[in-house]
Amino acid sequence: MTIDKPVFFFDCDNCLYHKNAGILQLMRQRIVDYIKNMGIPDKEAHTLRAQYFKDYGLALRGLLKHYDIDALEYDRQVDGGLPLDDILKPDTQLKEMLASLTTTRKWVFTNAYYPHAERCLKLLGIDDQFEGMTFADYRVPDFDCKPEIASYKRAMEEAGVSDPKMCYLVDDSAANVDVAKSLGWTSVHVCYEVPSNHGDYQIKSIHDLPTVLPQLWKSS
Ligand SMILES: [Mg+2]
C-alpha cells in the first residue's frame, strides 16, 4: 500500500493543552505520591521521578525497570485519578486549526496510556480530528516510549507511513523533537519559557503551529 500523504504526529500532554493548565504539576505530584506509597521517602521520591523522566522519557518506564510494579494499576492511580474534567475545556481555536490542516493526515503520538489521551482529546473537543493514536502500551512488558527510536518506528508503522520525510511531530519535550529530527522527521518544539534550538521550528503555543509551517495550511 502506498500512502502519499504526510502524517502529522501530535504529542498530547502539555502540547495540545498549555503546560500552565496545571495538569503537569498534578501529574508530577501523583507520581511522587505513588512512589511514596511504594515505601520511598518524600525527598527520594521527588528525585526518582525527575531522574526517571530524564533517563527514560517517562517516570513509569524507570519504575518498571527498577521495581516490580503493575503498570496498569499505576495508570489507574496516577493518570486515571486526574481531575481533567475540571481543567480541560473545549478549545475551538485548536479545533479549527486542526480541521483546516488538510494537507496531512493527523495522528496522536503520546507517552500516556490511551485512556488518558482519549480523555484529554474529548475534553478539548478535538477527538474527531485524528485518524489514530500511537500510545505507550502499558499492557506490554518493557513497552517503548518517546524518545526511544523504537517508538517512532512503531508510530510510523501504526500510522502506515514508511518515509521519515513524510513525518511531522509537534511535542513539548526537547528530547522527543531531537530524536524526531535525527530520524529525518520535520519537528516542532513547543517551548513555553526559554528560547529553544531544538527541532526544526519552535513555537510558544500549539495555536502557533501554522505560523511555522504555513505551506501545510494552504490547500492546493
Ligand atoms: Mg508532552
From TrEMBL:
GO molecular function: nucleotidase activity
Gene Ontology biological process terms in this record: nucleotide catabolic process; pyrimidine nucleobase metabolic process
InterPro entries hit by this protein: HAD-like_sf, HAD-SF_hydro_IA, HAD_sf, Pyr-5-nucltdase, SSM1_domain
One Pfam family hit: Hydrolase
Protein name: Pyrimidine 5'-nucleotidase
